[in-house]
Sequence to fold (341 residues):
Amino acid sequence: MAQKYLVTGGAGFIGSNFVHRLLTRGEDVTIYDNLSRAGSQINLQWLHEVFGEKLKLVRGDIRDFDKLSAAAKDADVVTHLAAQVAVTSSVTNPREDFEINALGTFNVVEACRQSGRQPVILYSSTNKVYGGMEEVRTREGATRYGYVDHPLGIPETLSLDFHSPYGCSKGTGDQYVRDYARIYDLPTVVLRQSCIYGPRQFGMEDQGWVAWFIIAAVTGRPITIYGDGKQVRDILYVEDLLNAYDLAIAQAREKPGRVFNVGGGLENTIAIWQEFGPMLEELAGQPLPVSRGDWRPGDQAVFISDIRRAEKELGWSPKVNPRDGISRLFQWVQDHPEYFK
Fold:
């Protein structure tokens, strides 16, 4: 029998891909989105063209508790993806960042508690809850940085250290979702995500950097590299992320309140320009001019998720390697020039 899903931020990059998956397999889905993000109208139009009247939208803001509660009252599963997503924006406007990410997430869990239905809540958290990790030792190689003491990446047991207003607001949501399982027996799960990329991502310079570099390469826009380009991230293709969503939701009632790192892990790492740059130039068929800027505050030399807990407890692992995933996203951008005028 179809479950009733509420997907906050369902017109965004990850949300629209998840809604497409859910509707394709016959679930009952409502999107809750204020449509403020770049590309959200484009993604919504795409979903409408595919699914027509099956697509249900509540245009609302997660800061509006009454409207959110009404949308959530019959939900079996709430996938909470709506957020303010950029560290730079959080520094510029920390109050708005707090209201969207911290208060907005509190509104989501409270709406679910008050519904009386005990819906599964999946929260899209971030690796930024681990902070700048200044105490974690790194080493520099020819094209990339690496960890000295964490050969398999950063585990969920590393101390949390909310750094930047964005880290504080997302971390607040992370801990509220976790604690509502303990205090109110809500079947929640928190996924601390790393560098998700894929089709329907309208990346910006300060968020969604894989997509941004590809969009810039295809459209001839300027690319700026901050720091030396050896910074390493584990990147995860969106379909692999959604596989983790399905597995986590399916198991949430059995084992509520769990937290997982969900990223590419050790096998899917890339240096943001020293290794990604040559791959992108090969796809573009030409050299790509870049300008250079100073390191940005809080920019980690390396972040790699230790994903062994998700592998062991969820039975999940990434399937799409960086070269294949980047090639797919490059082709998608090339195939949709109308989106990037």
